[in-house]
Structure formats: structure tokens, C-alpha cells
Design brief:
single chain, 381 residues, six-stranded parallel sheet, 42% helix, binds nicotinamide-adenine-dinucleotide
């Protein structure tokens, strides 16, 4: 009963557990909502300490995908998957092909992609078992690594936030405290430097932080514990979730909180609190949709120009949220939620006239036949 209560509480449609001992696969796929289309969301590989922690993560993340797709205006539902394992030690061809079979067994109700701990090489193994995977390599008709698009979208959201807080869409001579210099944060550091910002970064992986500093000319690096205390204009969380919590909110010395991480707020009240303190908060599921937009265009037959045009729209989407918030005297997080819930309600009203299931993807990839997906000798990264 407790399990069903947990799943029902956030409104999930379907949660499936896969245990394939031969391949050492322990995975959970959570489909939150398919009102707007098939549930698309990445596959996270992480050495969760407990199965409960893995379940809690996939439930939270899949719900956020429903909000992200709906807020961005995409015809997609929300889903996510987790593989319990250490990406540094436990990856194998068998594991990802087994996961591909698991995804395929859902018949297109769930489409996977990269997330923390998985990469384009892993997607290729999945692709050899199912069409319901995005973020596959461009040589196979896919869209490749989504992180640069996510970072570009985050920059658009930061610029829109600058309009609200500083009156102009520019980060020139602004100081950005950037938490996490991984796939998204690393690219973002480069984009911010090109736009003339001062970037103070941090990463728990010191080597990675120094490599990004050398590559993009990051102005200074601080210890990860100190990033919240850096006096800055913009705080950009680009590491793991829950950066803004009861312990960190009082330490922030910025006017804008806008970054790429998922689930930045430990709870929604903190989003309201940020704005009550005079800060602009860019709701994470609106600003970090660039990667999702990029893989979404893969379903139509990938076209980078079209993807970039859609990602650029994040600027206007974030602005729209602020306009709604100001008009109705709401916080930005509330405004974004209201916008999403209206869209879901409107479309689910329409759907009651049709058979709601199955919400399947029609995938139009140019170079695709399952047999053409080459098998690699090993898994990189
Ligand atoms: P990543 O693993 O490449 O990068 C995360 C980085 O954060 C790593 O370098 C890690 O060492 C560092 N880190 C972890 N904890 C930290 C801490 N406490 N302080 C400082 N650094 C810390 O992952 P990514 O793909 O760059 O994703 C980053 C965030 O953005 C995640 O929350 C992810 O869910 C979200 N996101 C990513 C994408 C994408 O396209 N990759 C899309 C949407 C959202």
C-alpha cells in the first residue's frame, strides 16, 4: 500500500521495475503523465544507496519532465528512468542493451535519452534494441549530446532574467557564480565568458574544474562549499538538485538565480521566498529545456537549425513567466506551474473524446535501421 501511495501522491500513471540479473540491470522507468504525448526523459545512472532513494529520484524527476515539456509547449509527456549502478564501474554493452529491451517493452509510451551518468555511447547500445531512444549520435540520424543546447537555453533564460533584474538582456560585466562545471556548466561557462561576464566557478571534481578554467578562461575557482557566499549578480546552479535549501538561501548574495540543474529548490516555498527577497528566480523546468527541445526535434527528423531556433525561444518563454508573475502578483515558480496546469487541463479535456492510450511516438530518423547501429567495442565515459 505504501508503494502505491507514494506513486499516487505525485500523480504517476505507471512505474515499472526491471530486474534482469544476467545483465546486472536494476532499473526503474517512471511515466508521470502522457496527456500531451509520449513520456520523454533521460536515463540517470547513479550508485543510489537504497532502492527507496532511486524510486524517490525517478518519481521526482519524471514529474519535473511533465512540467518541462508542458511549459515549453512540446507535444510530450513526462517520464524518466534510473539505473542503479556506478557509471564509472558498472557500464557494459549487456546492461544498456537490456535497458533498451526494457524501454522497447513499453511500446513507445516512454522514450529515453542521456542524463547524469549516461552518454551518447550508452544511447547507441540502447538504440540497437529499440527506436524509443533519443540523443543518439548524429551519424545515426540522432541529435547527439544535448548538453550544449541545454547550456545555450540556460544562457537565454539568464538573459531574460537580466532584463527583469537589471533592465537589459546582457551579462556583460556581470559576475556569475557557477556551481558545477560538468556537461552543462562547462559549456555555460564558455558562453558566459564570450558574452563578457566574470565567471567564478566550482566543482567537486577539481581536475574537471581546472580543465574548464583553462579552456574557457573562468576567472576564479572556489571550493564547492563556498560558492553560495560569492558576491555576484547571478547564481547559476548547474550541479545536482536541491542547491537552494533552508541552509543555503540565506547565504546567497545575488539578484538572479538561474541555472541548468533539475530540481533546484528543496521545496517550492523557497522559490516564493527567493522572490520575496527581491531576487529573480528562473524556474528550472523552464530555463533548462534546451536539451529536451533538441531531442524532441530528433523525433521529427533532426535539424540543428530548427533545434537552435526553438531553444532560442527559451528567452521569450522565461520572459512570459515573469510577465504572468508580475501581472498576477505571483512568484515565478507559481506562475510557471499555473501555466503548465492550464495546458494539461485544456488538453486532457480534449482527450476525453479520444482513446487516451497509447500515446506513442512516431519517429522519423533518416539513417535508421536497427541493423545499421554499429556495436562498439567498449563504453567510453
Ligand atoms: P554532469 O554530471 O556532467 O555535471 C555535473 C557536475 O556537477 C559534475 O562535474 C560534478 O562533479 C559537479 N558537482 C556535483 N555536485 C557538486 C557540488 N555539490 N558542488 C559543485 N559541483 C558539483 O551533469 P550535467 O549533464 O552537466 O547536468 C547538470 C545538471 O543539469 C543536472 O542537475 C541535470 O539533471 C541538469 N540537466 C542537464 C541536462 C543536459 O542536457 N545534460 C538537461 C537538463 C537538465
Amino acid at each position: 500500500m505504501k508503494l502505491f501511495e507514494k506513486i499516487g501522491k505525485l500523480g504517476h500513471e505507471q512505474v515499472v521495475f526491471f530486474s534482469l540479473g544476467d545483465a546486472n540491470l536494476k532499473a526503474i522507468i517512471a511515466i508521470h503523465d502522457t496527456t500531451l504525448g509520449p513520456a520523454l526523459g533521460g536515463c540517470r545512472m547513479f550508485p543510489y544507496k537504497t532502492e527507496e532513494a532511486a524510486l524517490a529520484d525517478v518519481l521526482r524527476l519524471s514529474r519535473a519532465m511533465t512540467y518541462k515539456a508542458a511549459a515549453t509547449g512540446l507535444h510530450l509527456g513526462g517520464g524518466k528512468s534510473v539505473i542503479i549502478g556506478d557509471p564509472k564501474k558498472d557500464k557494459s554493452e549487456a546492461l544498456f542493451r537490456a535497458f533498451g529491451k526494457a524501454v522497447g517493452s513499453l511500446g513507445g509510451r516512454y522514450i529515453t535519452a542521456e542524463d547524469v551518468g549516461t552518454d551518447v555511447n550508452d544511447m547507441e547500445f540502447i538504440f540497437s534494441e529499440t527506436d524509443y531512444v533519443t540523443g543518439v549520435d548524429t551519424s545515426l540520424g540522432g541529435s547527439g549530446n544535448p548538453s550544449p543546447y541545454t547550456a545555450f537555453g540556460v544562457l537565454q533564460g539568464i538573459l531574460a532574467s537580466c532584463v527583469r533584474s537589471f533592465g537589459e538582456p546582457s551579462v556583460k560585466n556581470r559576475t556569475v557564480a557557477l556551481q558545477g562545471l560538468g556537461h552543462v556548466g562547462g559549456h555555460l561557462a564558455g558562453l558566459l565568458k564570450k558574452e563578457g561576464a566574470t565567471v567564478i566557478g566550482c566543482d567537486v571534481d577539481k581536475e574537471r574544474a581546472e580543465a574548464i578554467q583553462d579552456k574557457h578562461g573562468v576567472d576564479d575557482l572556489v571550493h564547492p562549499d563556498e560558492i553560495f557566499d560569492v558576491p555576484c549578480d547571478i547564481f547559476a546552479p548547474c550541479a545536482m538538485g536541491l542547491a537552494i535549501n533552508e541552509n543555503t538561501i540565506d547565504r546567497l548574495k545575488c539578484k538572479v538565480v538561474a541555472g541548468g540543474a533539475n530540481n533546484q529548490l528543496a521545496n517550492d516555498t523557497l522559490g516564493i521566498e527567493l522572490e520575496a527577497r527581491g531576487m529573480t528566480y528562473a524556474p528550472d523546468f523552464v530555463i533548462n529545456a534546451g536539451g529536451l527541445i533538441n531531442v524532441y526535434t530528433e523525433l521529427e527528423g533532426y535539424n540543428e537549425r530548427r533545434a537552435m531556433r526553438l531553444v532560442r525561444n527559451i528567452f521569450y518563454n522565461v520572459q512570459k513567466i515573469y510577465q504572468l508573475a508580475d501581472k498576477y502578483n505571483e512568484s515565478s515558480i507559481e506562475a510557471a506551474r499555473i501555466m503548465v496546469e492550464h495546458r494539461l487541463k485544456d488538453i486532457s479535456g480534449l482527450q476525453s473524446h479520444f482513446n487516451r492510450f497509447p500515446a506513442r511516438a512516431a519517429i522519423h530518423r533518416q539513417n535508421r535501421t536497427p541493423a545499421s547501429a554499429p556495436s562498439r567495442g567498449g563504453v567510453e565515459g
